[in-house]
Design a protein that fits this description.
Blueprint: E1 4-13, E2 21-31, E3 36-41, H1 47-54, E4 62-67, E5 70-71, H2 76-85, E6 86-89, H3 102-112, H4 117-131, H5 147-159, E7 165-169, H6 177-194, E8 197-201, H7 205-211, E9 214-219, E10 222-227, H8 229-233, H9 236-241, H10 248-258, H11 270-283
Parallel strand pairs: 3-8, 3-9, 6-7, 7-8
Antiparallel strand pairs: 1-2, 1-4, 4-5, 9-10
Helix pairs in contact: 3-4, 3-5, 4-5
This protein binds adenosine-5'-triphosphate (ATP) and magnesium ion.
Adenosine-5'-triphosphate (ATP) binds near residues 21, 23, 43, 45 and 47.
């Protein structure tokens, strides 16, 4: 059974004003347990609005969202359950750090869940380990951490709730390549250790191409595509029309193919591009 089913949801902002806008139009998809799904789309396409629907921070105007088969907006209890089971980490989550110590900040979610002191402590340590935050940093103020450490601390706060579905809105925005790789690695750690479903919203085609099992493409409030990495990039022309791009590796391979090299352009990561080029050069007797 799907963990999360989104059925035909629509939503708009500022109804009854000149600024009225339809942010989501008849969006439907479902997520299986343990999947890592990438959500891409031009700025303003409705990605963050959609993510806030998934843990009931925003409620659809029509359609419904089922978590483990139950409507998350059915009643107060269902809403609360969705807030605990679907962990949402906003873009630049470090701006929401507010406690005196990292330990207190990470324990905020588990505390709200009414867990025992001991369970909370365990969860904080486990979450800190998953995100690679050293134990000695837990007693420090989050404001004394580096940018990358702050991001880890904020994500640990969501992970400490052990959500069944972990949603990260632009988790690597503003980080350098090392910070980016670190964040992606910890997300993968969480998924491997818990079997949770993970959704990553990103503007980076290279990130979705390298880590996602499936990609959802949003365009002007609608779900334009829902498929595997290779399915999605067969639509590269439409993607470009939506203001999106194809991964750097794909661009390189397409350019080389256009120059007459007999290589596959069905390549989405730099590792696969390197392998394909080595194979080509060996075939040509050049290496
Ligand atoms: N609180 C709000 N009030 C009014 N309009 C909003 C609000 N939040 C978003 N919108 C509008 O709804 C539409 C969808 O916005 P949303 O933030 O979901 O897009 P996004 O795909 O996450 O964009 P980005 O890539 O820039 O983060 C946009 O037109 C945006 O201007
Ligand atoms: Mg957004």
């Amino acid at each position: 059974m799907a963990v999360l089913e989104v059925k035909n949801i629509s939503f708009g902002y500022s109804h009854g004003t000149p600024f009225e806008i339809t942010a989501l139009k008849n969006v439907s998809f479902s997520l299986e347990k343990g999947e890592l799904v990438g959500v891409i789309g031009h700025t303003g396409s409705g990605k963050s609005t959609l993510m806030q629907m998934l843990n009931s921070l925003l409620k659809p105007e029509s359609g419904e969202i089922l978590l483990d088969g139950k409507n998350i907006n059915a009643d107060k209890k269902s809403v609360k359950e969705a807030r605990h089971k679907v962990g949402l980490c906003f873009q630049y989550p470090e701006y929401q750090l507010f406690e005196e110590t990292c330990f207190k900040d990470i324990s905020f979610g588990p505390k709200n869940m009414g867990l025992s002191e001991e369970e909370i402590r365990q969860r904080v340590y486990t979450a800190a380990e998953i995100v690679g935050l050293q134990k000695e940093l837990l007693d420090k103020s989050p404001f004394d951490l580096s940018g990358g450490q702050k991001r880890r601390c904020a994500i640990a706060g969501v992970i400490a709730m052990l959500p069944e579905v972990l949603i990260l809105d632009e988790p690597t925005a503003g980080l350098d390549p090392v910070g980016r790789a670190g964040v992606l690695e910890m997300i993968d750690n969480y998924r491997r250790q818990t079997g949770a479903t993970v959704i990553i919203v990103t503007h980076s085609m290279d990130i979705v191409a390298s880590i996602a099992d499936r990609i959802l493409v949003m365009n002007k409030g609608e779900l334009a595509f829902n498929g595997s990495v290779s399915d999605i990039f067969t639509h590269s022309r439409e993607l470009v029309r939506m203001g999106l791009d194809v991964p750097v590796a794909t661009k390189i391979m397409l350019a080389l193919r256009n120059k007459g090299l007999e290589i596959s352009s069905d390549i989405y990561t730099l590792e696969d591009a390197a392998k394909e080029l080595c194979f080509f050069l060996a075939k040509e007797g050049k290496i």
